[in-house]
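Hi R.,

Here's the chain you asked about this morning:
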Amino acid sequence: MALAENIQAVKDRMAAAAQEAGREASSVTLVAATKVQTSDTIRAAIAAGITVCGENRVQEMTAHLADNAYEGAALHFIGHLQTNKVKFVVGRAGLIESVGSLRLLEAIEAQAAKLDLVQDILIEVNIGGEESKSGVPAEELFPLAERALLLPHIRLRGLMAIPPAAEEIHGSRPFFAKMRRLFVDIKDKMNDNKTIMDYLSMGMSQDYEDAIREGATLVRVGTALFGPRPPIRRPDTP
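And the predicted structure, written out as tokens:
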């Protein structure tokens, strides 16, 4: 029951934040960040109303797919993706949210071409300019987006960001506002029928309400749904 109650509580808070911003609750989708969760927990979350699962680690995603754990929900890949792991993700995750370099973009294109499919992606923006985080610098976003438009097996759906850790309440909101401006700007520049720029993925358990107030259409929430994560036992090596 606790999981179902947590999911409903997060959805209620999402709806309230959307209403505060003059938006419909349906304009924002909850992505359950299922990192380190079991297949049974994922099934329980879907049964309780989760419609999108987001995985950070290729090894876990692969295992859960083998268990059919995501049945009834869409699957997004939301973690750092190495180019040598692309073959495990393309065509299996409906949306890859974390494309933050030209090298990764072209690796996804090559794998999607092999599978003869079009892979939906988001460009990850390093909105805080942090050396420790992946993502393209804001000033390099447009060239990467232009390149994505030229690739026949890529469909650019929007942007994703993880802002710097906030030291105070609402500390992430200026970064969310900057992402919103980038999102609007890139949509205006990407005047192409191939591009459906409808996803702005930002906000996690500690700040998803502020992200919604600033225009997020996807929020990636884990701890607020599942509780604190146990320690990760080993690195992602499928």
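The mean pLDDT is 93.

Let me know if you need anything else.
M.
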